[in-house]
Design brief:
659 residues, mainly alpha, Butyryl-CoA Dehydrogenase, subunit A, domain 3, Split barrel-like, 4 domains, three-stranded antiparallel sheet, 26 helices, 7% strand
Length: 659
């Protein structure tokens, strides 16, 4: 029609041209024919517009036949944008026409729909998302291989741009969840327990796999994050299922390791130790039942290597809980039993339960217990045992070694067999009268079942013997040392006795609270040398007596004697000495320097009375000839020496802060 009208206008224009030519011959004025020019302009604009409409329509129709999975949205979008530019390049007068408005709207809607189609091509889109799209648009269709762009354009996606974007965003998030769940499935399908044999029984024990625990914790965190997502709805059941499985696996693995650890600890005690079985028959019987049940679970679990399957068996957690509760009863009984042993020999309080159990299980073998002596005594590392005719060590101890390998023979051989009678209990009480241990030992004898012959062969009995012999030996050596100090030159006398005889015990070593349990109140802070301190106290007292008699230089003369003694010791250090003797002399030098400084201070302050506070505030040792005991005095306090063997150890320099 536009072409026909175009021809008509051309004919009119030809007629106008002919008329104008004739009129010019006759010099006649010709009308302007504005309407004809207007028609020419409008017909051209209209032709251009409809040509554009035809081009756009044909392109869109061609696209509509394209299968939707093969749609090249990017190319179509570029072409649509080109259409928009061409449309907007048309004459402004055209823009008021409905055809122009319709064309522009069609192109813009197609462009918007193509963007939506591009979103829908996301691989995250599933069948459920198409159903949600149909529900949003109100148009039903089936997405298959025959679906084309025309079917999608029928949805008028340009009206549902936000809905499409929301569905696609949801699909992308759900695809992320789907990926996590697939990885979870792959991980736990191949996750298996690793086992190792129990050293004593060969039973399969669950191996602590750090990687498994780490993966389990990470996956639980991942599932918790998924549960907090607003897109969880579709996967809620699956995620909840995995949460339950992994939570159960975590709980079972945790309690399994706890039960396994406790069982492994108690198995060697209640099954492998006849001493404990004899002392705790009911709990040993209870543990035998636990042993059967736990082994049954362990062997059954080994048949199902997969972690999730093995841990999610019905009733497994409840069975482990029951075993755990029964193990706690056995542990409680064992703890109470160990407490009775600690009551009988309080130094056991300074041992861990495992060390104490090791001692009890080897109680009749003193050579095996020796490795724990340094934990029970301040500085006793091992003992010397008497040999029988075949050269094998017996249970008779002849002496003790310090950690520095100093050897001190016992005053009498010590019986370490563990046998003790009522008479020996009284003897031990007499020897250890100044400590609380004897009453605790008697209490243990009274409260323990006398019908059990094993009680007469228990470790706390012979350790009590060792303690008594140690104290008796140190006391004997000190008695002889104090007496011999008057009879021999100091530089000769100090080599005749162990370093302990010269030293005052201090709170040193691994048991700073030992005095609390044993009543060793003499273990005062500071460092001194017992015999040297005894004679230092005696000689200072003699100097004070001479001052009272009127000899004014008595204290100064004693100071000169101290300096001479120090010079003698220093000259001895320069010579050839064994390692032990050198340590003895260095220790004496350390204390002698302090003693010299105290005397120098009293001289400087002109102290002339033994009742002066400067002297009374010093730690002073004295030997009681009647009681045959050493006492330590400071101000008006007096403490009995404890006779703990300390060996030949170095002493710290005494400063005003440690004095």
């Amino acid at each position: 029609m536009l072409d026909a009208r175009h021809i008509e206008i051309q004919q009119m224009e030809s007629t106008v041209a002919s008329i104008s030519k004739s009129a010019s011959l006759f010099e006649v004025s010709v009308p302007d024919y504005k309407q004809l020019r207007q028609c020419r302009r409008e017909i051209c604009q209209l032709k251009e517009l409809w040509d554009m409409i035809g081009m756009v329509t044909s392109s869109i129709h061609a696209w509509e036949a394209t299968p939707w999975r093969n749609i090249n949205v990017e190319a179509m979008e570029l072409e649509c944008k080109q259409f928009v530019r061409l449309i907007r390049a048309l004459d402004k007068e055209v823009r008021a026409w409905e055809a122009f408005t319709g064309l522009e709207t069609t192109v813009l809607n197609t462009l918007t729909s193509l963007r939506a189609v591009a979103e829908l091509q996301n691989p995250a889109i599933r069948e459920r998302h198409w159903r949600q799209l149909m529900q949003a648009t109100g148009v039903s269709f089936t997405v298959d291989e025959g679906t084309t762009l025309a079917h999608l354009l029928q949805l008028q996606l340009h009206h549902f741009e936000d809905e499409v974007q929301g569905i696609v965003d949801k699909a992308v998030k759900e695809m992320g969840m789907e990926k996590i769940l697939k990885e979870l499935q792959t991980t736990w399908v191949g996750m298996e327990f690793q086992y190792e044999p129990h050293p004593r029984t060969g039973m399969p024990l669950l191996r602590c796999d750090e990687d498994l625990i780490e993966v389990l914790e990470d996956n639980q965190v991942q599932l918790q994050n998924l549960m907090m997502s607003k897109y969880i709805a579709f996967f809620l059941e699956e995620v909840s299922g995995w949460q339950k499985k992994l939570s159960t696996a975590d709980a079972v693995i945790s309690i399994w390791f706890d039960v396994q650890r406790t069982w492994s600890h108690l198995e060697s005690i209640f099954i492998g130790s006849e001493d404990i079985r004899a002392q705790l028959p009911q709990d040993s019987k209870r543990f035998e039942g636990i042993d059967i049940d736990f082994k049954e679970l362990a062997y059954d679990a080994q048949k199902t290597p997969n972690v999730v399957e093995a841990t999610n068996k019905s009733g497994l957690y409840e069975k482990l809980e029951d075993i755990q509760s029964r193990l706690h009863l056995c542990e409680k009984a064992l703890t109470e039993y160990l407490d009775t042993k600690r009551l009988a020999f309080p130094r056991f309080y300074f041992l861990s339960s495992s060390d104490l159990l090791d001692i009890l299980s080897n109680g009749t073998a003193p050579q095996q217990v020796q490795r724990h002596l340094s934990k029970l005594f301040d500085n006793m590392a091992k003992m010397q045992f008497q040999l029988d005719a075949s050269g094998k060590p017996t249970k008779i101890s002849l002496g003790m070694y310090s950690k520095e390998e100093e050897y001190v023979a016992f005053s009498e051989p010590c019986d370490c067999s563990g046998q003790v009678g009522n008479g020996e209990v009284l003897l031990l009480s007499s020897v250890c009268a100044h400590i609380q241990m004897a009453s605790a030992f008697r209490m243990a004898l009274v409260t323990s079942p006398t019908s059990n012959p094993e009680f007469l062969l228990q470790v706390e009995v012979w350790l009590t013997h060792v303690l008594a012999h140690m104290k008796a030996t140190v006391r004997r050596e000190m008695t002889e040392g104090v007496t011999a100090c008057e009879e021999k030159p100091r530089e000769h006398w100090l080599f005749d006795y162990p370093a302990q005889v010269f030293s005052k015990p201090g709170l040193r070593g691994p048991h700073p609270l030992l005095a609390l349990f044993l009543g060793d109140l003499c273990h005062l802070p500071g460092v001194a040398l017992t015999c040297t301190q005894i004679w230092w106290t005696t000689e200072v007292g003699m100097a004070f007596a001479r001052l009272e008699e009127g000899y004014e230089n008595a204290m100064k003369d004693y100071y000169k004697k101290q300096v001479a003694q120090l010079k003698t010791l220093i000259s001895m250090l320069i010579g050839q000495l064994s390692k032990g003797d050198r340590q003895k002399i260095m220790t004496i030098c350390t204390i002698d320097v302090h003693a010299r400084d105290v005397v120098a201070k009293m001289i400087a302050q002109k102290v002339d009375s033994a009742q002066a506070f400067l002297w009374l505030s010093q730690l002073r040792h004295r030997w009681d000839d009647e009681a045959k005991h050493c006492f330590a005095n400071i101000c008006d306090a007096q403490f009995l020496y404890s006779y703990e063997y300390l060996g030949n150890t170095p002493r710290l320099v005494i400063t005003p802060l440690t004095d």
